[in-house]
Write a structure and sequence with these properties.
mainly alpha
Length: about 260
């Protein structure tokens, strides 16, 4: 039953994540936390691995087909910063989790930060047409932006979520569908370094490996389904998908705050 639940959530989350560039983990992580089928550290690791698989598949297809969605001069610098930020964010999470007798309590901290960040992102997304976007050109500034995105995504165990998309909207004037693809590229690098750190330090939490395999395979299937949907919608519809997903994540985050810290 646990295997079916985890795989089903991975499929649905990665479908939605590919459509609107959230990376899938922003739904996988809080939903599995809320259900409580596994300890928080195991869920964080599984979510990260699933996000890597989905993002790698999606970005790999985009590069092989030479699609125009990726703005590599911008996104490559952001991804480099995000890779470093992924290491820092993972270290922050490990340090905070170690302060609590029950490691699951760290899930409440993650839920609180996720709620705040998602609410701020939703507020911006709803009002973005009235806010003048920018075109950040300085490589150093791009690197810092990527670093902060990587730290946030890694600490939360979600890869990147809608925060990446909102940043690409505002700082680089990318439309929704283009921002979605570039967001996944950034997510791939931030989560990859975070997960590699866990593996190399031999701090991988215990979990059934069949669940990891199932979630990886279903994340790829969900990514393919999401890609097909993405091709049939316009930028306005992609934004509506993103806004609806953020409302869902905020509701689940409130539940998890009460569950872990109440």
């Amino acid at each position: 039953m646990v295997l079916l639940i985890c795989c089903g959530i991975a499929f649905a989350a990665c479908l939605l994540g590919t459509v609107c560039g959230m990376g899938g983990g922003i739904i996988i992580k809080p939903v599995l936390d809320a259900i409580g089928v596994l300890p928080v550290p195991a869920i964080t690791f599984l979510s990260g691995c699933t996000v890597i698989s989905m993002s790698c598949w999606s970005v790999g297809r985009t590069l092989l087909r030479r699609e125009a969605a990726l703005d590599l001069p911008v996104t490559a610098v952001l991804a480099a910063g995000a890779a470093a930020g992924g290491l820092i964010g993972k270290q922050l999470y490990t340090g905070i989790a170690a302060r609590f007798p029950d490691p699951n309590t760290a899930g409440g901290v993650q839920a609180g930060l996720l709620l705040a960040a998602t609410a701020a992102t939703l507020l911006y997304t709803v009002n973005k047409d009235r806010i003048t976007s920018r075109e950040v050109a300085a490589p150093a500034a791009r690197l810092v932006i990527g670093l902060l995105l990587g730290m946030l995504g890694s600490f939360l165990g979600i890869g990147g979520g809608p925060f990446n998309v909102a940043v690409l909207y505002y700082f680089f004037s990318m439309p929704a569908k283009k921002a979605a693809q570039n967001s996944l590229f950034i997510v791939l690098f931030s989560q990859l370094t975070s997960t590699l750190r866990t593996v190399l330090l031999d701090t991988v939490p215990p979990f059934p490996w069949a669940i990891l395999l199932g979630m990886v395979l279903l994340s790829i299937a969900g990514s393919e389904a999401g890609r097909r949907i993405n091709r049939t919608i316009d930028n306005r519809q992609a934004t509506l998908w993103l806004e609806g997903a953020m409302v869902l994540v905020m509701g689940i985050s409130i539940y998890n705050i009460v569950k872990f810290l109440g």
